Amino acid sequence: MTPVEPLTGPRSRHSLNDSLANGEPRPSIEVDRLSLYYGDKPAFQDVTLSIKRGYITALVGPSGCGKTSFLTCLNRLTDLIAGCRVTGQITIDTLDVCTPSIDVVQLRRCIGMIFQKPNPFPLSIRRNLEFPLREHGARDRKQVAQTIETVLQDVGLWDEVKDRLDTPALALSGGQQQRLCIARTLALSPEVLLMDEPCSALDPLSSGVIEDLIVSLRGRYTILVVTHNLAQARRIADNAALFWVQNGAGRLIEAGTAKQIFEEPRNPLTAAYISGMRG
User: Fold this and answer.
1) How far is the C-alpha of 236 from the C-alpha of 258, rounded, in Å?
2) Cα 137 to Cα 221: distance, rounded to the nearest angstrom
3) Which end of the chain is more exposed for a tag (fewer CB within 10 A), N or C?
């Protein structure tokens, strides 16, 4: 695949095996007392969370508790929102994401995002994947073609579309479009994948395909998934975090392994939400 350029200078990528060498993987992302405000209104406040490298972390909780807003802080999409203010710290390895000197274009390349509704470009399947590669400097046609084949295989689309790469992407089914969008993100060699309810616009069969795809990417990428589907979170996640609105702002209520959160929650609010009594 096309290599990722450094964010602020020379910087090595560590494999999951490297992280496991000394036992427990060190955090891929550290969030410390993070708060986000839209004008004077807090979306969430004082979130501290360690996100482990190579694992799938599910962010759960009712609507409006700051889960999606939290995701947008991680790759600085908040910069695009007028009146948005972020306080606290986000660290990827030793990189301070909030520093003004960071190259946000490269940051968003390293931290890709998949949205609720599939959003392929109104171009051919091939051009959907060529476009971001060309924009980021890829010029070798053979390498670009190989990257396209590789990422389409990664998302299970290659056999379905290899004979019609020049047909419109918008002619694909909803589930295929979402897999194409994931492939488009993978083409830029990210380290982290942010997924904001990636199955919410899909039928159950297509949702199952996306779930299987997410699980297949475990270990290769650090994945955060916002979902309202607790059964889905339980099926795919290694770790989970519950957000809730308290005192007018989203708060992190509890975080831990998915098994602990779903089977032995420590916070009564978590227990009530998981059991269906709240939310």
Assistant:
1) 9
2) 23
3) N
Nearest to 133 by CA among 142, 122, 144, 125: 144
**Which distant-in-sequence residues (6+ apart) come within 8 Å of 50 by Cβ?**
27, 29, 30, 31
Are the CB atoms for 194 and 75 separated by under 8 Å? yes
Structural domain that includes position 112: 24-275
Instruction: Kindly state whether residue 11 falls inside one of the protein's structural domains.
Output: no
d(CA 264, CA 9): 44
2 within domain boundaries: no
pLDDT tens-digit map of 43-53: 999 999 999 99
Instruction: State the chain's maximal CA–CA distance in angstroms.
Output: 57
- Backbone dihedral region of 170: left (phi > 0), alpha (psi from -120 to 50 degrees) or beta? alpha
pLDDT, tens digit (0-9, with 9 covering 90-100), for 24-39? 555 589 999 999 999 9
Listed residue (68, 51, 62, 58) closest to 232, CA to CA: 58
Rounded to two decimals, the pTM is: 0.88
| Pairing assessment for the beta strands 95-96 and 249-257 based on DSSP bridges | unpaired
Please report whether residue 18 resides in a domain: no
Confidence of residue 9 (pLDDT cuts 50, 70, 90): very low
Nearest residue to 128 (alpha-carbon basis) of 151, 105, 153: 151
Looking at residue 26, its pLDDT comes to: 52
In a domain, 141, yes or no: yes
CATH number at residue 33: 3.40.50.300
